[in-house]
Every structure is written in C-alpha cells, then in structure tokens.
C-alpha cells in the first residue's frame, strides 16, 4: 500500500507506543519541506498543464508576462534610436511598464510580476539617467543574472538543486528524489543547464556593454532574444534531461 504522494508507508513500529506511553510520531520536517518546495515552485512561476508536464509558456508568464519583460526594453531602444535623447527614451520605457501594471489592475490579476517589472525598469532608468549612458539601462540585468547564478550553484553544492525543487513538485516527487543518487545527479545537471543559460547571457552581453553606445543596439537586441525565449528553451532542455527513467513493473502477488 502506498500513500497519496507515492512514498512508502511508515513502518508499523512508528505508531507503537514506547515506554512512557508516548508514541513515536513521524518527523514533520518532510511535509514542511515539501510544502516549501511547492511554494517555491509556484512563486518561481512554474506551472503544470493538464497532462502533468511543465507548461513552458505559462511558466514564462504567459503571453502577457513575456510582453511585460520585453516591451519596456524594446520601447527604450526604439525611442533612443529615433531621438538619440536619453530622457524621453527612459520616460517611454517607464510608461510602457506602467501600462502593464494598469492593465493587470483592470484585469484584477496578480500584480507581482508587473510591479517587479516596473521597479526593475525604474532602477534601470535611474542608473542610466545618473550616469548619462544609455547602455547603463541594462546594467541591473547583469547583477540579477549573477545573483541567480550564485544561488543556483550554491543549491548544487548543498545538494538541494533548484531544478529538483521545481521539477520535483511538478512531477509529484516531493523531496523523495533526494534519496535517489541518480535523481539527485539528474537534477544537479538540470540546474547546471539553467546556470549555463544565465552565464551565456553574460558572456554575450557584457562585452557589448563595454563597447558603449556603439554596442547599444546589439546589446538591446541580445537582451530581448536571450530573455524569455532563451529561458523557455533552457527550461525545456532541463526538463528533458531530468526526466525519470521508466520504472520496472513489479510482479503481482500471484506471480511471486
């Protein structure tokens, strides 16, 4: 007999009263950690489709979420290319981010993603306005990528790879995958794939940033292409790489 989450039932002696009349109770740490993993996956924007697989488009925020991540930067680039003036370009980018926030208010949808977007655009605009360099509009993204890389590498070192926390929730594995060395290795590899995606952004974009205004168009273009589209691709590859192998069928009691 198995329980709902697919794990093996506890030993019968776990409920046997011990001297003193107090039964051994299962430690609550496992269920608590499973709930934390599920919450982390949901906050990270990971979603299951009806077939139980990762919904890649929805995980990237859906069409509206992708537009929210792309449009302000695109508006900034187009406006600056036309006007060669930093101030109206920054105002246009902020206005584009604000429009999405208002749209979510009207739709009565969660504001978390839109507010994070407008705060990010606001900080980017402040940096560019402070230095007077258009390319500094993209500096914040470099530090964000570095922070994510550091967090994911740390998760691998601690044997809590982020891919396992995310995909384990989607696959209803809970935290059982940590007990299987093969599954743990697979989720470490999946996390390294996401790290590689983030590192590739830096490898391509940082040299363009140091080219100054001459590299601005290429920097902005690669930022758009290597944003949500590359993230979805990396997520899909990581999902395929961490797919569990086929489980051998157990013989029935009549065959034993």
Which helices and strands occur, and which strands form pairs?
Blueprint: H1 29-43, H2 56-59, H3 62-83, H4 86-107, H5 112-131, H6 139-157, H7 162-170, H8 181-209, H9 216-225, H10 228-241
Please, could you describe this protein's structure?
This protein has one domain (56-241). The relative contact order is 0.11. Helix 1 (29-43) packs across helix 7, helix 3 runs antiparallel to helix 4 and helix 3 runs antiparallel to helix 9 (216-225). It is globular and about 60 Å long. The protein is mainly α and 256 residues long. 64% of the residues lie in helices and 0% in strands.
Which keywords apply here?
disordered N terminus
| CA gyration radius, whole angstroms | 23 Å
Q: Structural class of the secondary structure composition? A: mainly alpha
DSSP helical segment count = 10
Oligomer: single chain
Series of secondary-structure elements, N-terminal to C-terminal: HHHHHHHHHH
End-to-end separation: 17 Å
Strand percentage lies at: under 5%
Question: Could you say which overall geometry the principal axes of the C-alpha atoms support?
Answer: globular
Largest sheet, described in full? Answer: none
Number of domains: 1
Count the strands?
0
Weakly predicted, low-confidence segments: 1-30, 252-256
Q: Classify the helix fraction into a percent range.
A: 55-70%
**Could you report the average pLDDT, rounded to the nearest whole number?**
78
């Amino acid at each position: 007999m198995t329980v709902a989450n697919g794990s093996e039932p506890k030993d019968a002696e776990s409920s046997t009263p011990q001297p003193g009349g107090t039964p051994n109770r299962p430690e609550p740490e496992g269920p608590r950690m499973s709930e934390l993993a599920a919450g982390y996956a949901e906050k990270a924007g990971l979603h299951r489709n009806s077939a139980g697989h990762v919904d890649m488009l929805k995980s990237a925020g859906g069409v509206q979420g992708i537009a929210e991540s792309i449009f302000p930067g695109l508006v900034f680039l187009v406006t600056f290319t036309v006007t060669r003036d930093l101030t109206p370009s920054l105002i246009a980018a902020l206005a584009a981010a604000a429009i999405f926030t208002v749209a979510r208010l009207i739709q009565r949808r969660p504001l978390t993603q839109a507010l994070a977007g407008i705060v990010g655009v606001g900080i980017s605009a402040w940096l560019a306005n402070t230095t007077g360099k258009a390319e500094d509009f993209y500096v914040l993204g470099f530090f964000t990528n570095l922070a994510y890389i550091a967090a994911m590498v740390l998760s691998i070192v601690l044997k809590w790879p982020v891919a396992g926390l995310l995909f384990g929730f989607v696959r209803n594995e809970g935290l059982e995958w940590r007990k299987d060395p093969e599954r743990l290795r697979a989720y470490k590899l999946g996390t390294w794939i996401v790290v590689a995606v983030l590192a590739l952004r830096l490898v391509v974009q940082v040299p363009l940033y140091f080219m100054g205004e001459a590299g601005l168009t290429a920097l902005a273009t690669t930022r758009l292409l290597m944003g949500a589209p590359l993230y979805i691709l990396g997520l899909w590859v990581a999902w395929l790489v961490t797919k569990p192998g086929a489980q051998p069928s157990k013989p029935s009691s009549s065959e034993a």
